[in-house]
Structure formats: structure tokens, C-alpha cells
Design a protein that fits this description.
- This protein is α/β, with parallel strands linked by helices and 300 residues long.
- Helices cover 34% and strands 12% of the residues.
- The termini are far apart.
């Protein structure tokens, strides 16, 4: 059906600059999305927002320009539990692509086995209150039991101030956890604040993986990832640096392209790579973040 993006929707940046850093060979974009195209892969009628198209062709071009060799495509809420667009990416470039899907609890073993063969390795659950009608406790528990035999993980998206109400439930799940966007910390509270300290303790006790990207979602002050900018999102970088220092073998990074639901600005994805130099202290840290860790989780 015809569609139009939500009012005020910011389109992803097509006129990117040239990257100023060279990524290590085999680098993985561990968190990206595809939207549509809407006339081929319709958006969910229950969606909270309508994006612009961001196709697999656009994604492949981005990764070629930036120097990413592999990708993990994460199902976005605008497609609901219809993973067709994501699975199309996996079929198109199977060796270099993995997926994190959205499922309903009536999924059967044969469908899971087919997805596994295509490269799906996780299921995403959203606990951000503005994006879901209710916390998906029952669905998550039922699906976690079903995916355990495939050695998949659960990707959880929540806001850090809600962790106190969620952590007991998360700790009881029988599969590994991957946390999106550092659990969305309140950067104004600093890295020694109570919520972030609780989050670090949770990560350590559960041996969770953590994505340290998406500073554009968390920043209060910038500077934004725009052409010519070197120092980016300086209020968010200390959180990522601390996680990388304390959990060097459990951190991941992704572009979050095409940056859904941003309101303040649209990053230049080439300029965004400069942020990697701010949150890593060595080539070894960068290699673990972009190569070793995501390959261990998604390709081992």
C-alpha cells in the first residue's frame, strides 16, 4: 500500500563524506537495519512510526563505502514480526550477513531451523515504553525456551532507569543477552551515577554483551557527526570508553543505519567513524570491538 514517512522524519544521509579512518580488515557492523522498500516489504499496520525506504542495496553501498566486510541486520519495530526484508538481506549475501529477528511465541521449530540456516542468531525484544504497548515478558520467556536449542541470544532494548524493574526477569532467562545502545544511560548523570553503576554490575553478573554505538541517540550536547567534525558526542564517549575498558571481550559496535526516529540531526555515517577513535585506546581494542567480538558471537 502507498505510504508516507511520519511527519518530520529525517532521511538518512545520501551525500556522505569520505571516511578519514581505515577500519580493520573483516570489520562488522553489528547493528544496522533495512526498511522496505515499502512497496516490496510492507510496513506493519501496528507500527508506531513510518520510515523512509532504506533498502538492502543502500545498505550494501554504505558498507562498501565505509569499509565494513560483514553486517548484523536487526529487525526494526516498523516491520513488526514480518522479517521478510531482513531475511532477504541474508539470502542476498549469506556469508557476510547475520540477523536478529522479531518473533511471536507461536513460531515452530521448523521455521526457527530455516531461519538459523539463513543466518539468524538472535531475537530482539523492546522494553522502551514509548515504542511498545506493554512489556513482552510472556512472549520473551516462551521464545527464549524455543531458541535455546539453536544457541541463539536475546537482544534487549530498554532505558537504564527501568533496569531495576527488569533485571530479575532478565537474569532468569536461559539464553545469552545482548544489550542495545548501552542500556540508554542518562548521560547527564555521568559514568559514576547510580543507574550506570547498576548497569555495569548487571552486565558483569550476567556476562552480557553490550553495544556501545548510537551516541547520536544519547547525546545532549554533541557535537554531531557532520562533515568535518572530529570530536563527536563528547558527553556519551566516556560511557563507551568505560564499558570497553571493563568488558573488552563483550562489547560490539554498529552504525544503527538508517538511524530511525532521530529528531535533532541525521549523522554523516562516514564522519561517525571518527567516534571510534574517541572510544578506543589502541588498535587492539578497535579490532576486538569491530572484528573479534562480533565474529565470536555471530559467526563462531
Amino acid at each position: 500500500m502507498p505510504f508516507a514517512p511520519s511527519p518530520g522524519w529525517l532521511h538518512w544521509e545520501k551525500q556522505r563524506t569520505t571516511p578519514q579512518i581505515i577500519l580493520p580488515a573483516g570489520a562488522v557492523d553489528a547493528h544496522c537495519h533495512v526498511f522496505g522498500p515499502g512497496d516490496t516489504f510492507p510496513f506493519s499496520p501496528l507500527r508506531k512510526y513510518t520510515p523512509c525506504d532504506a533498502s538492502k542495496t543502500d545498505l550494501f553501498e554504505l558498507h562498501q563505502e565505509l569499509g565494513f566486510a560483514r553486517r548484523v541486520v536487526v529487525q526494526a519495530t516498523c516491520h513488526g514480526s514480518d522479517n521478510s526484508a531482513l531475511l532477504d538481506v541474508l539470502r542476498s549475501d549469506p556469508d557476510a550477513s547475520r540477523g536478529v529477528v522479531t518473533l511471536t511465541s507461536d513460531i515452530d521449530e521448523s521455521a526457527l531451523a530455516e531461519m538459523h540456516e539463513l543466518g539468524v542468531r538472535g531475537v530482539r525484544f523492546n522494553f522502551v515504553k514509548r515504542l511498545v504497548d506493554h512489556p513482552p515478558y510472556k512472549e520473551l520467556r516462551l521464545i527464549a525456551d524455543k531458541i535455546r536449542q539453536f544457541d541463539w541470544h536475546i537482544v534487549i532494548y530498554f532505558e537504564q532507569h527501568d533496569l531495576a524493574d527488569l533485571e530479575d526477569f532478565f537474569r532468569e532467562l536461559p539464553v545469552p543477552l545482548v544489550i542495545d545502545h548501552m542500556g540508554r544511560p542518562d548521560v547527564s548523570a555521568g559514568t559514576t551515577g547510580a543507574d550506570f553503576s547498576r548497569f555495569l554490575s548487571f552486565v558483569d553478573r550476567t556476562d552480557s554483551w553490550v553495544k556501545v554505538g548510537c551516541p547520536e541517540r544519547l547525546t545532549l550536547d554533541g557535537p554531531w557527526a557532520r562533515p568535518g567534525k572530529q570530536e563527536l558526542y563528547t558527553d556519551v564517549a566516556p560511557f563507551a570508553r568505560r564499558l570497553i575498558a571493563e568488558q573488552p571481550d563483550r562489547v560490539l559496535w554498529g552504525t544503527d543505519w538508517p538511524h530511525p526516529n532521530l529528531k535533532s540531526h541525521m549523522p554523516d555515517d562516514a564522519a561517525m567513524l571518527n567516534y571510534l577513535a574517541q572510544i578506543t585506546d589502541s588498535d587492539s581494542q578497535l579490532h576486538k570491538l569491530l572484528v573479534d567480538n562480533p565474529i565470536d558471537l555471530y559467526w563462531a
